[in-house]
Automatic annotation (TrEMBL):
This is 2-phytyl-1,4-beta-naphthoquinone methyltransferase, chloroplastic. GO terms for biological process: methylation; phylloquinone biosynthetic process. Keywords: Chloroplast, Methyltransferase, Plastid, S-adenosyl-L-methionine, Transferase. It comes from Spinacia oleracea. Belongs to the class I-like SAM-binding methyltransferase superfamily. MenG/UbiE family. The lineage of its organism: Eukaryota, Viridiplantae, Streptophyta, Embryophyta, Tracheophyta. The gene is LOC110785625. It is found in: Plastid, Chloroplast. InterPro entries: MenG (IPR032904), SAM-dependent_MTases_sf (IPR029063), UbiE/COQ5_MeTrFase (IPR004033), UbiE/COQ5_MeTrFase_CS (IPR023576).
């Protein structure tokens, strides 16, 4: 399916569980954090260039790993939550091929517009299998047991209610299938935390400042401090009901990826 236009979730009743009212899903915008929505909308135009610059291109490798851990395969129907400008959705699209279907969901219309533009600019045929959906990670507009694999890149740390986000992932994932959640690692090793903070203060914020986005990237440090450690993420996923969980530290412990099997 080719969907180049953005679809607000309340316009897609076919994906809702039978019996669930559409109006419940219409309310998503009220419940999401306006501040974070504004933040991500503001950084959308430069988000990709900044990612490349700040990670020296390494985020592409980590995203490939995340997609690989999701177990997505040809013909699958898969979801990328907090898709932003679509990096993980594009990688998923290559995995599932034209027989498959990818949904990229984000609450920032600006981010989705960038994703949609990138999709139009690329001639790779399989990218036609991606549709972009405006919606809230805390109130996913899909019926239960719907997806064969789910990814979330640098999204969980940013949502207001992490438990609720994991519950929603669990709900819409088919039994036996995997969710792969990539983010900064809140390390148990004090030295890793020190390195992360030094890099944010001395590299990330100065570079972001040159783009006029100092405040937006300063938020990164507190969001990591307030995030969950790998162990805590594993415990949370188990408590929500996942049967098997494994947290992988990557990039020398600076990043982490939770793989949870329903
Ligand atoms: C740091 S970006 C990551 C984008 C992309 N996944 C990547 O790895 O490049 C985080 C994204 O999460 C989205 N986001 C944050 N909270 C959300 C929520 N509650 N529901 C949907 N999207 C959300 C933001 O709009 C933003 O695009």
């Amino acid at each position: 399916m080719t969907t180049l236009q953005l679809i607000p979730s309340h316009c897609r009743p076919s994906l809702l569980s039978p019996g669930k009212s559409i109006s419940r899903h219409r309310k998503f915008i009220v419940r999401c954090s306006d501040e974070r929505l504004t933040l991500f909308s503001r950084i959308a135009p430069v988000y990709d260039s900044l990612n490349d610059l700040l990670s020296l291109g390494q985020h592409r490798v980590w995203k490939r790993m995340a997609v690989s851990w999701s177990g997505a395969k040809r013909g699958d129907s898969v979801l990328d939550i907090c898709c932003g400008s679509g990096d993980l959705a594009f990688l998923l699209s290559e995995k599932v091929g034209l027989d498959g279907q990818v949904t990229g969901l984000d609450f920032s219309r600006n981010q989705l517009l960038v994703a949609s533009l990138r999709q139009k600019e690329r001639s790779t045929p399989c990218y036609k299998n991606i549709e972009w959906l405006e919606g809230d990670a805390l109130n996913l507009p899909f019926r239960d047991d719907h997806f064969d694999a789910i990814t979330m890149g640098y999204g969980l740390r940013n949502v207001r209610d992490k438990e609720r986000a994991i519950e929603e992932i669990y709900r819409v994932l088919k039994p036996g299938c995997k969710a792969s959640i990539l983010d900064f690692n809140k390390s148990m090793e004090p030295i890793t935390g020190v390195i992360q903070e030094l890099m944010i203060d001395n590299v990330v914020v100065p570079i972001a400042t040159s783009y006029g986005l100092a405040e937006e990237y300063r938020y990164l440090k507190s969001s990591i401090q307030e995030f969950l450690t790998g162990k805590e993420l594993e415990q949370l996923a188990l408590a929500v009901g996942f049967s098997d969980v494994k947290f992988y530290e990557i990039a020398g412990g600076l990043m982490g990826n939770l793989v949870a099997t329903r």
